[in-house]
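Input set for joint prediction.
Command: fold jointly, output tokens.
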Amino acid sequence: MSASFTSLIYTYIGFPLLAIVVLNLIGKKHMEKFCAPIGCAVGVVQAVTSVITMLLLLQYNKAAVNFSQFWDMSVSTEAAYFSVDAISAIVLFCIGMVTAASFLTAAGMREEKMFNYTNVMLILVLGMSGIALVTDLFSLYVFLEITGIASFVLIALHRDIIGLEGSFKYLVMSAVASAFILAGLSFIYMETGSLRYDAVAEMLAGNTAAEPMLIWLAFLFLIAGFSIKSGIVPFHGWLPDAYQSAPAPVSVVLGGIVTKMAGVYAIIRIMSDFLLGTYSVINLAFMLLGLLSIVMGALAAIAQGDFKRILAYSSISQIGYIVLGASTGSMIGLIGAVLHFFNHATFKTTLFVNSAAVERQTGTTEIERLGGLQKQMPVTGVSSVLAFLSTAGIPPLAGFWSKLLIIIAAWQAGGPLIAGIALVASILTAAYFLRLQRKVFFGPVEEHLSTVKEARGGIAVSAVALSAVTVVVGLLFPVLLQILQAQGLL
Amino acid sequence: MNTLTMAMLVTAFLLIVTGLFMLVRTNNLIRIIIAVEIVMKAITLLLILAGYINGSELLPQAFIVTVIVIEVVVAVVAAGIAIRIYRHNGDLDIRKLNRLNG
Amino acid sequence: MNGISAFLTVGSGMNLLYVMILLPFVLALLCLAIPKQSYAAKAGVFVLAVVANLIFAFGVFRAPDATMLIPWAGFEINLALRIYDFSRFIVIAAAIIVFLVGLYSVSFLRRKEYAGQFFFYYLLTLALANGAFLANNFVVMLFFWEGLLVSLFGMLVLVNKDNVRTAVKAIVLSGTADLLLMLGIAMTCMHAGTMMMDAVNDLSVSGIGAVGFLCMLAGAIGKAGSMPFHSWIPDAANDAPLPFMALLPAALEKMLGIYLLTRIVLDFYDLQPGSTMSLVVMIIGAVTLFFAVSMALIQKDMKRLLSFHAISQVGYMILGIGTALPVGIVGGLFHMVNNALYKCCLFLSAGAIERATGTTDLKRVGGLGKMMPLTGLCFIIAALSIAGVPPFNGFFSKELVFDAAIESHTVFYVIAVVGAFMTAASFLKLGHAAFFGPTKLPDDVKKEDVREAPAAMLLPMVVLAAACVVFGVWNRLPLDMIQPLLGDTLAGQDFAGWPHSMTLVLISLAVLLLAIINHIIGYRMTGEGIKAVDHIHYAPGLRQLYHCAEQHYFDPFDILMVFVRIYAWLCYCIDRAINWIYDVLLVRLTSFFSQSLKNFNTGDVAGYMVRSFIGLAFLVLLFVLLI
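tokens >
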């Protein structure tokens, strides 16, 4: 059984590596037209593998499986190893799904720098998969940086001044965030001799720290660092700029998974591995930050004039929900947060794919210059509506369930006021999305847009597939939840 | 907490503050990159301190080397972006980089 | 074939439960998907569906008791289905009717272009009805019950999109009944503490139980089409395709409604004979019976006449069940089965007339007996059944209901007997006008074109008429299926064979004789079969009443609409005020905040960093304060 799991790790890390090597060995000229299919294949393989992992976990009834490549686990317990558990499997699935969507979008957009794009994207996939698989804080930092570097390069791919600007801002803030994370890391290391998750969890649970002040300081830095990385208000400044300025396929992957992996996943890990069941100022801090993000993100989105910027602020708002759910420290909140993670990957990616379609077909993403596209781009319009309904939390789509869980958890942990604010923010969510829909899709067709046709090929396929996932997950959620709870995995 | 630890902590802290202050106040792209470097060095100082407190200096050394490598890559990418910005804008003034706003 | 019989006889009925609901649904979608041109394909799929349903219903009939449970959402809302004696019986009864009407409609709809959609709605109704019959959990049953509204609406707007008014009326009336049902179910579940139907037993009918009982009662009778939820049925008679009328208002809806009513009276609530609630139910039954048949008496259009009769027959069923006596409940259930048989047959023969001549308006069409002999014969048998002539099935079930009525209160018996008189009179008029007497045809139809109905339409009619005879003469067969349903309440009584009380039989026969005499008088007076009851219609006091009724003054729906309009105007005024708050005030506030946030976010990185530091400082403060 460990053999099958070991081969899984090969797939997660090895397959992108293999793809990079193959691409580069054969060279740009011959591989140019295979880039998108290869990238798509990598994404799909990743998604399928993660489903298999989940099923294996369910079948063998294990909470997590550890495996390491380079040394035998039983010999040294101090070494670093990889581990897959239910949350990781779900997250890996998201990575695969969004990657596939991104490559499909790139193919649909007739991306010129396809070869470079594929290479750097594969590195990005590697980094993100690594984040999901590691079990100690330093390895987390390493993979975090890999992801970051890949995303800086990707945003600046087209080398236009807007892209460069967005990339630079992201880079600066991300570097500061990494510095903070490392600072927190070192403080934790001062207290325990090891940076592995289980060692840290043990120390925190047992209260064996010699100097608790250092631990609080460490968490302060960690919270600040991860908050900057995830785009929580007030650390969010770079996020709208980075999302708006990136090329369309890069926005898809950035908004769909990168920000969440880099920041929010770590927050979920911290809350679930170290702090489950305890309630301290950390919970309160995250709760407040989450709430602030929800409200500010939604408010700011209402007045925006660019399609992608609205989606960026919407991401800030939804990430606020995830953090709010994780901050409650209870099982319900955690499940809600992970599910919202998954849902956000789905609907935000759909929306960014739609914006790519609009951008390709009309040449602009300013909503004032768009209008009445529903008739000409029905697939885009419908998938956009489905994604919007899921974001706003309308049953029976998937977003409803995750929001419900998060609000219930917030009620239990923080009282009705917090839950109420989160609920009211749903109305704001609906407000900015309705505005977006109205300005872009509904209404009379503008003169200069009358020749616009539906986006073909990869873009349409990925939009449809992702919408289908939203609907299906929404309908099947109660069943899924029962299965997972029965197994005690989540 | 002996004096060495205290001194290192204070130094690191001062470096961090300096770096961040420079980050915020300067108008030159290259200086921003340098400021980030300064902050990273302070962090490596903290790592060494952690190793000293724990008694094992091997693991932090490995960490620090890794950190330096990563930091170099980041700096290179940043510099590359800065060069491109220079070619577009004509100078390295960060105040000119505000086309994305709102 | 081996597989199917193994499937049917082997133990668990679990698979059957799924199939009964899913198969019609899937085939319904298939019918919709087949393009318009190939009628044969659509008809083929449709026939396959009804035949398969019949076979599987038979399998359900033979299967042992089984329940199936899939937990779904929490709070005991589970997908629960159950085969037990009642659901077994009613599923097969419904399947047979569905099959027969289905065969009929394949032929009837041959040249109509809405055939595909009709088949779709037909099979959808079948799937939903199966689900409602088999459901074992209130929420599940409610789901299927409500779903039937969709297919109802669909069928009603099928022929002509302008029939929306009738469809809306049907939806409003049925929907109100369903709403009350929902309320009743909620109260019942709260009272009983469970949502599973087989766990709710003999709740007392007082206090909250009374309210729950009444609400569920409203839902059941609303579906069955009794007063006051009846007024859409006569309108639908003109608007909807005829097989729809034969299926839904005549048979399936009655089955659903009476099935639920019986379960309410027998299982869920403990209704005592002679109690107030029993009186309430009987009053509803009697009122329905009487008024509907009075209206039926004066109709001149065959379909409208039959639909009023359908409403009145439900009155008999409700009256019987409402007595809460074993003889009454058995009578009511038997009447439900019989009504399905003869009412269906009557509608089908009306359809044959419509197909042959293009109309069923008795002022324009009549005397078709020579040209459509078989149809006429089936009609006569069905009419004799509904009038309660021995030895046909209607007689036996009516006698049981009379027996129960007289044991409760004599006044109900009197009303029932008067109703029987009017039923008989009205069918005498109808039969005479439609099939006997001088032939009358609309202007555009030639005598030679009026032929007997095709075999596919005749076969169901013949089968139904034969069943009327069989269930009458050999009434042990159906009664043996119905009587065990009552379980212990039956207390060993047996109602098969000739009715127990000869007095009642004699009174009934006398009433029939009276009706014949009345008809002959009327015929002599006016010279035309159709005007044979005009002396009742235009009698001094009754004429004004009838006029008002025909003008829909008594239509509860129209009265409701007047109130609705006043209420709507009031709401409009309040709404304008609220609008200002939302549209003007809130919008300005939100955009103010949003704009300021937007202006806040200038493009420079330094600003972002500063804000991050402010956030950091706030975190530090938080930590310092709370550690």
